[in-house]
Design brief:
Layout lengths: L1 H15 L20 H35 L2 H25 L9 E2 L20 E3 L7 E8 L5 H7 L3 H4 L3 E11 L4 E4 L3 E2 L8 E3 L3
Antiparallel strand pairs: 1-6, 2-7, 3-4, 4-5
Helix pairs in contact: 1-2
């Protein structure tokens, strides 16, 4: 890459840095015309100044274009892209592992003594983000309550999810947890795998 840069600089110098006699305003003065000596010198000096400023601008433009050309080479782009993709990729993977995309497997229900969170085979936690795929309602739960035996489908259909209406059928009982959506309800006391209750259409709603 250094050799390519030297060649390009040599080419620029040969094209733009060598003075052109015609551009310098050097013309052969007629013999015996001594009165034109001063004006010719002034023209030559002005031409030199103009050429210097023009060449300076051209050199700067050419150097800028050369620098841009070098950084636009595929090798530069590939290296920077690889480094960026590695770091950003690792960050996104870590983020997805740590928070996003986690859901309960298996899904557990439990009484008030069972902690809530993400349930796994080694972490027995009651899911606190349940959703019913039958009625499309989020499942509510109330610690240390149980549902009264007189509860029916119409009661939950008309009163979900407002607690001040639902509490009419809630009975205090330590250690239990009352679950309900708009179409189903359960009172749970022990850790229970949701798959064992085939009537419930509840799933973990975490993403």
């Amino acid at each position: 890459m250094a050799e390519d840069l030297d060649e390009l600089l040599d080419e620029v110098e040969s094209k733009f840095c060598r003075p052109d006699p015609l551009r310098l305003g050097i013309v052969e003065r007629p013999k015996g015309c001594g009165g034109g000596t001063h004006s010719s010198d002034r023209n030559r000096a002005q031409a030199k100044e103009t050429l210097r400023s023009t060449e300076t601008f051209k050199k700067e433009d050419d150097l800028d274009s050369l620098i841009n050309e070098i950084f636009e080479e595929p090798n530069f782009d590939k290296k920077s892209f690889k480094l960026k993709s590695k770091s950003s990729g690792n960050t996104s993977v870590k983020a997805s592992i740590q928070g996003f995309g986690k859901s309960c497997s298996p899904v557990y229900l439990g009484g008030s003594a069972i902690p809530c969170g993400i349930g796994t085979n080694t972490s027995w936690r009651a899911c606190d983000h349940l959703r019913c795929v039958a009625c499309d309602f989020w499942v509510v739960s109330y610690n240390d309550y149980m549902w009264d035996k007189s509860c029916d489908y119409l009661f939950f259909r008309n009163n979900m999810p407002e607690f001040h209406k639902l509490k009419a059928k809630l009975v205090k009982k330590k250690g239990t947890r009352a679950y309900a959506c708009q179409c189903s309800w359960r009172t749970i006391e022990e850790l229970t795998d949701l798959q064992t209750d085939h009537q419930l259409r509840w799933v973990c709603g975490k993403h």
